[in-house]
């Protein structure tokens, strides 16, 4: 007996009827009605819990909300090109990194965001030299290059 899951598009009832396609083997429960731990990992109650404090979600998304507000302000003041240019600079600054086993300071990204002039708890408590985990440099580079 093979079970089928229906993958639906969430655009509306009409499009769901038209776009519904039975697909075998892609059920979240797996082909036999059980969770496939090998593909999806172990279930964790921690992932299913709601935020423990009302401000937790706001603090997690603070940088994203700050960026959205900056983009909308730039768009209203300078036009459409300003947020696009800033996003391209952010993307370029994120791609500049050292070798995988060396910690990156992300100085260019901090300069673009304006956080290079402020000292926060992450500057003191996240010192990479005091990290608990130090990987094997050769294995980390091979993994990054896709050789492993």
TrEMBL record:
Transmembrane segments: none annotated. Keywords: Chaperone. It holds the Pfam family UMP1. One of its GO terms (biological process) is proteasome assembly. One of its GO terms (cellular component) is nucleus. Belongs to the POMP/UMP1 family. This is Proteasome maturation protein. It comes from Nothobranchius furzeri.
